[in-house]
Amino acid sequence: MKTIFHLDMDAFFVSVEELLDPSLKGKPVIVGGKGDERGVVSAASYEARKYGIHSAMPLRTASMLCPHAIFVEGHLHLYREYSEKIEAVLRSFSPLVDMASVDEAYLDMTGCERLWGPPLQSAHRLHQAITDQLHLNCSIGISSSRLVSKIASDQAKRNGILWIVPGTEANWLAPLEVKRIPGVGKVTEKQLATIGITRIRDLASLDERFLLDRFGKWGLALAGKAQGKDAGGWFDTVIGAPEDPKSISHEHTFNEDTTDEKLLRATLVRLTEKVMKRLRDHSFHARTVQLKLRFEGFETLTRAKSLGDATDIDRDIVEAILHLFNSNWPKDRKVRLLGVQVSHFTDQAPQPSLLTGDEDRKWRNALKAADKLKDKYGEGTLHLGGALKGVYKDRVHETAPKEPVRKPPK
Ligand SMILES: [Mg+2]
């Protein structure tokens, strides 16, 4: 029997802003930009949420719902710093930690009783350590599975701890709505509602065979989840095991749809840099690069290109992505979103060619030095040409409530 903690910071971005400016406390605060800007809400304080404001909502809608809200730009680098501090506290409790996003994590606390006491006591100690060292509130869910712990931390909010005693998981889940299950979005919720399934107990009473026929593999996973088991999706992975992605991607949505070629190209370079940094962190080389291009009005196209040799050098991917962009972008069409993805990984470098071997080596050395700086000072510190400073603006969202961080595989 495992003991799994799910820790989720309470209104993380806003709480960090309150540390910087205590006068924000208790007020409707919105992080993400000004109320008349085109972007979306990154995070909202509990006070702002009372007006129906939530992350990913357009800033303009938020300012209509709550005209007296305080809009702040936010401090991304600070949130990352705090996230690292949170992880350090967690690692002092267990070596098996998965940061699921910037403000939530799973801890495998199995076998830690001798060190920290029984589950509830160790959770109190962890909660106290976070409060003492970071002056931030969090909520903790405890159970024998990631799934139930995640749902429990949500029910424990704000600033609470909830332990689902082993053996009582299914009973505890039974009266909750199906949408509490991570991965059950609006679409699945609707499909289930059409056959009369609204509570987790309804789902648990269904025949596995029926769910398999109706929803395929996902249906089978749902049957397990309704019992409180880590069945299917990203919950199958072991906490603390290294991430093993099939693809790595970054996207950017512009505040205003744009035809500014300089901005578009700079954005593609910057997205590529972020993708390639992560690729090198895994010591992978990628063979395929894919461009995602969304136009005004949401029409979206994706175009992929295979490279002759797998690579881990920014230059190669930048070249391919700009080529894809040039041949697929009609210059008068406004662009809403750009995305860069690399896939088809190998963990071996290709044979250095006589023509480019020397130059590749120089690139690799430069990138190695740059990666080190980024690890130390943050991803935004350094750009190797192309990604023009001030032209492109990074953006991050706090995890929206109830949304899974990683999408379950199809
Ligand atoms: Mg949170």
Your description of this structure?
Among the domains are: 66 residues, Orthogonal Bundle (DNA polymerase, domain 1); 135 residues, DNA polymerase, Y-family, little finger domain (Dna Ligase, domain 1), CATH 3.30.1490.100. The protein has 15 helices and twelve strands. 39% of the residues lie in helices and 20% in strands. Helix 7 links the parallel strand 7 and strand 8. The relative contact order is 0.12. It is an alpha+beta fold. It has a five-stranded mixed β-sheet with strand order 5-6-1-7-8. The chain has a four-stranded antiparallel β-sheet with strand order 9-12-10-11, covered by helices on one side. Strands 3-2-4 form a three-stranded mixed β-sheet. Helix 4 runs antiparallel to helix 6, helix 11 crosses helix 12 and helix 13 runs antiparallel to helix 14. It is globular, with a radius of gyration of 23 Å. The longest helix has 21 residues. The site of magnesium ion has 5 residues, from strand 1.
Helix-strand layout with pairing:
Blueprint: E1 4-9, H1 12-20, E2 29-31, E3 43-44, H2 46-49, H3 59-65, E4 70-72, H4 76-91, E5 97-101, E6 104-108, H5 113-116, H6 119-134, E7 138-143, H7 146-156, E8 161-163, H8 169-173, H9 186-194, H10 200-204, H11 208-215, H12 217-226, E9 247-258, H13 261-281, E10 285-295, E11 300-311, H14 314-328, E12 335-346, H15 357-377
Parallel strand pairs: 2-4, 7-8
Antiparallel strand pairs: 1-6, 1-7, 2-3, 5-6, 9-12, 10-11, 10-12
Helix pairs in contact: 4-6, 11-12, 13-14
The structure holds magnesium ion (MG).
Magnesium ion is lined by residues 8-9, 12, 103-104.
